[in-house]
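Thread amino acids onto this structure.
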């Protein structure tokens, strides 16, 4: 498409933009009504406190989303008394954030710990603390640039870490399989948008479309229909190391051929669909072609670790604790806990001669639990490189490599096994504050891609337009012809896109509203 928010070609009359504004203010109105009446019914005071805390937090969270998208917004803290007085001016950003912090801080002392629920759909103490860390990081960055808030961000993130209630799931992919299967892991998944059912079991619509619009494309009903509307980018694909298991999970390497179960493997990054949520793992059958009950993550523990590292780095530069937290995320991403020692690289020792077709590569022995696989590349009749496709798991010793084909002879290769620390940051990535910040910027992309956080991160770092322009340049220069249209978002973007326009429908109703810079 050439029009719409997805390609940064829209105006203040866009229905999606208006929908965000309306939905968030509807949530604020409901919270205001509840808070205005919470003391009226008879109920145990402990229950009243929890409900008050949840309402305060949700109202504050909705204002956080509003300010992140629109900047200054009307701050409304009482239920609407009349529809005849819609004219309310925009409140300065600093005042709105003061209210957000006040409400969330109060809520943190009222809500229950996540262990009281054992699921991630309710507002828990961990959720409030983690989101407070996110809010404080936003306040420390653009546009407020209140650097004192880095200390607060570190404080709130550390409270989650020190609670002892959370840890990383040893399997990165299992996090998202759990979402598809309506399973909870509250050690990793702290707060989620809950969906349920698929409309085929009941007429109650509490469904979502995770993995339906963006997923591994295919129309087979048993696997689960997916339109595969979103692909990965070359920029994201290239910042992963080949040994990082997150790459081929987040950016799926295959799609399904039509209505069959046959996998078709893509060879270029820009042709690969988003693979983070895969419908083949859904348990509820029969599957609806357009709806499912997969939950969406709002806050994961890995995000908390990365937020702490970022905040602490801004305060005093890299330290051992912050580096360790980033390494924990990277080690999980490389399958260190899940897979033990595996095949790190296959190194060509002798390229041989006479190879006119690509030979088969087999990795034998080594006492593995899961066998590694690899593929060869040839150039000028020689084996020029061998790429690890799957690294295998729990090798007890170094395996051997067999290279066999219908043409060519003499090629040999050896295996280098992984070590416990080969996913860890290298000294250059933690050499100083700037280097560690750059590292964290990339690590957040590798870990949290497609979870709705990247745009906000880039804006608060002040590099949103720059990074989008760079992505467009990469698409123009390096993408195959069929996918060069992916440059459109970056081609169209400008500084005005750091904020959404105030919806024209709202300005028409409220004469005190002013428009954001650059928008009509």
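Threaded sequence (520 positions):
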């Amino acid at each position: 498409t050439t029009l719409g928010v997805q390609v940064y070609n829209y105006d203040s009359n866009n229905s999606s933009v208006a929908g965000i504004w309306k939905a968030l203010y509807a949530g604020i109105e409901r919270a205001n009504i509840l808070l205005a009446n919470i003391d009226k019914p008879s109920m145990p005071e402990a229950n009243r406190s929890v409900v008050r805390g949840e309402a305060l937090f949700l109202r504050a969270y909705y204002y956080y989303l509003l300010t992140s998208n629109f900047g200054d917004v009307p701050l409304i803290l009482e239920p609407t008394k009349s529809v005849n007085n819609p004219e309310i001016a925009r409140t300065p950003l600093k005042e709105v954030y003061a209210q957000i912090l006040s409400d969330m801080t109060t809520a943190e002392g009222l809500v229950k710990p996540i262990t009281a629920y054992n699921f991630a759909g309710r507002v828990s103490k961990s959720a409030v603390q983690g989101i407070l860390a996110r809010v404080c990081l936003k306040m420390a960055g653009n546009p407020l640039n209140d650097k004192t808030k880095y200390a607060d961000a570190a404080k709130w993130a550390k409270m989650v870490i020190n609670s002892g209630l959370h840890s990383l799931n040893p399997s990165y992919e299992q996090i998202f399989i759990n979402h598809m299967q309506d399973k909870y892991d509250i050690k990793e998944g702290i707060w989620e948008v809950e969906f349920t059912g698929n409309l085929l079991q009941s007429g109650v619509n509490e469904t979502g479309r995770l993995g339906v619009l963006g997923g591994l494309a295919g129309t087979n009903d048993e696997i689960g229909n997916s339109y595969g509307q979103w692909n990965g980018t070359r920029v994201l694909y290239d910042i992963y190391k080949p040994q990082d298991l997150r790459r081929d999970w987040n950016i799926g390497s295959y799609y399904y051929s039509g209505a069959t179960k046959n996998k078709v493997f893509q060879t270029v990054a820009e042709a690969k669909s988003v693979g983070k949520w895969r419908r083949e793992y859904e348990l509820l059958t029969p599957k609806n072609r357009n709806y499912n009950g997969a939950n969406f993550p709002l806050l994961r523990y890995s995000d908390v670790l990365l937020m702490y590292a970022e905040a602490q780095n801004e305060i005093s530069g890299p330290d051992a604790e912050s580096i360790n937290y980033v390494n924990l995320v990277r080690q999980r991403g490389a399958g260190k806990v899940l897979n033990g020692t595996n095949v790190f690289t296959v190194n060509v020792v002798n390229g041989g001669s006479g190879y006119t077709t690509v030979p088969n590569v087999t990795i034998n022995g080594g006492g593995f639990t899961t066998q590694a696989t690899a593929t060869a590349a040839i150039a000028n009749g020689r084996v020029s490189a061998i790429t690890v496709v799957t690294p295998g798991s729990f090798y007890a010793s170094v395996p051997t490599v067999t290279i066999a084909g219908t043409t060519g002879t003499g090629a040999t290769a050896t295996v280098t096994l992984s070590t416990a620390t080969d996913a860890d940051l290298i000294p250059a990535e933690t050499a100083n504050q700037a280097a560690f910040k750059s590292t964290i910027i990339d690590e957040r992309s590798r870990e949290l891609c497609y979870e709705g956080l990247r745009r906000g991160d880039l804006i608060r770092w002040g590099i949103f337009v720059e990074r989008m322009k760079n992505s467009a340049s990469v698409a123009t220069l390096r993408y195959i012809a069929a996918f060069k249209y992916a440059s459109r978002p970056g081609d169209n973007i400008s500084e005005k896109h750091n904020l959404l326009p105030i919806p024209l429908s709202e300005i028409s109703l409220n004469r005190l509203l002013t428009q954001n810079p650059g928008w009509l």
